[in-house]
Amino acid sequence: MNVKERYEAAKEVYKEYGVDTDAAIARLKDIPVSLHCWQGDDVIGFDHDGPLTGGIQTTGNYPGKATTPEQLMADIDMVLKLCPGAKKLNLHASYAIFENGEFADRDKLEPRHFKKWVDFAKERNMGLDFNPTFFSHPNIKDGLTLSSPDEKIRKFWIDHGKACIRISSYFAEETGIPCVMNIWTGDGFKDVPADRMGPRMRYKEAIEEILSEPYDFNKVKPCVESKVFGIGVESYTSGSAEFTLSFASLHKDKCLPLMDNGHYHPTEVVSDKIPALLCFFPELALHVTRGVRWDSDHAVILDDETKEIAKEIVRCDALDRVYIALDFFDASINRISAWSVGFRSLQKALLAAMCTPHKELKKLQDEGRFTELMAKQEEVKMLPVGDVWNYYCETCGVPTENQWFNQVEAYEKDVLSKRA
Ligand code: RNT
Ligand code: ZN
Known about the structure:
- It is a single chain.
- The chain is an alpha/beta fold.
- It has one domain (31-357): TIM Barrel, CATH 3.20.20.
- The chain contains 14 helices and twelve strands.
- The chain has helices at residues 3-16, 21-28, 69-82, 115-123, 151-175, 197-210, 241-250, 270-278, 304-315, 335-354, 358-366, 370-380, 385-395, 405-414; strands at residues 33-36, 87-92, 127-131, 179-183, 188-189, 220-225, 236-237, 256-260, 284-288, 290-292, 295-298, 322-326.
- It has an eight-stranded parallel sheet, with helices on one face.
- Strand 1 (33-36), helix 3 (69-82) and strand 2 (87-92) form a beta-alpha-beta unit.
- Helix 2 (21-28) crosses helix 10 (335-354).
- The radius of gyration is 22 Å and the shape is globular.
- It starts with a helix and ends in a 6-residue tail after the last helix.
- The chain binds L-rhamnitol and zinc ion.
- Residues 38, 43, 56, 131, 184, 225, 227, 260, 287, 296, 327 line the site of L-rhamnitol.
C-alpha cells in the first residue's frame, strides 16, 4: 500500500472513534510553530567572538556548524524543506547582521540590523519572533544583568530590552504577523545568596521599564520566561517561576508568561501547568524542549511529556491562545537532524492530539467511569497515527518518515562537510 492508501484505511479506523483526520490535517497546517535559529550555530550569533556564557551551555563539536548568516539561512532552508506545517522564525538579538564593518552594541541595536532576516522571512511567508540576548556579553556583571545592583549595568540591559521592543514592532509591521518577544536572563547565583529579594525587586523594576517602551500589544507580545537554575547559577535565579508568573499576572495587559518545560524540577510537568494558566491568562507562550536530569535543552523527541503538552493545548481548545516555540541546542550531532527531529516530533505530537477523541474521554471522566477511561486511553494510543502523519507530510510537500534522513546525509556530504 502506498501512503495515500494507508491513509484512507487509517481514516476509516479513526472515523469509528468519531475523529475526522482530514480536519485534523487541515487544522495542523495552519498552526504556527516557532523554529529557533540558535540550534544551527550552538547559540553563538554574529555579534561577538567569544563563547556562549550566562547560565546556558552547548556541548559537543559536531562538524559543519553555521558561522555566517548565509550559512545559517541555508541550513534553516534545509530544515524548512524537511518539516511540515506552518513556521515562524525565532531570532535572538545576537543574530544581528552588520554590514560594511559597522557594529552596534546590544543597547544600540536598530531594526535595520535585522533587515536581511525580515527579507528572508517575508520571502518564505513566515512570521518572526524575537529575543533580547542577555547572555554572552561583557556587561554581565557577577552573573547579573537586569537584576544587577550596578545601575550602569542595569541601564545597559534595559536599553537593550527597549531596543528589542522596537525591533519586534518592526518585525510585526513588516511581516503582518505578531512578534513574540521573550525576556529570559540567566541572572542568578552559584551559591547561597545573602539577599534573594533585592535582585528580584530590581529585576521587576527593570522589566517594567523595558515594557514602558511603547508598543501595540496586539502586534508585540513580550513574555517573561522563568528558570529554576542554570549552569553556574545553581543556587538561585532572579527569574524564578513564582517571580515571572506573578510579574505576568500583574502586567497581563502588557506581557505573557512563558514556560520552558526544561526549567522546572524533574517531576514537575508543564503539561499540567498549561490548563492552570489558561484559567487566568488570555494567552501564554511555551518553549518546548527536553530536559534530561539537570540539563534543559536536549532536542525534542516524541516522548510522553511532548505528547501531553500538545494534548493539553488541543483539548483545552487553546491553539490560538498558546504561542508554541522550540528551544534546544545540541552540538554533538548533525544540527539539521537535531532541528528536524525536534520540529517533526512536535508536529507529530500535535497531530496525535488532534486525532484523539477528547470529547468521549472527557465524558468518561465526568461520569466517573475511571476504569473504562484508563482502558480507552490506552486503546487510543494504538490508533494508526503514523499513517496519518506520512500522508500529512506528503500533502505538505515534505519527506515522509523514512525519507527525510537521507536528505540530511546528502546535505552533510555536499554542504556541511565542506565548511572550515
Ligand atoms: C535558557 C532559556 C532560553 C534560551 C534561549 C537561547 O535556559 O531556555 O530561552 O534557551 O533564549
Ligand atoms: Zn527557553
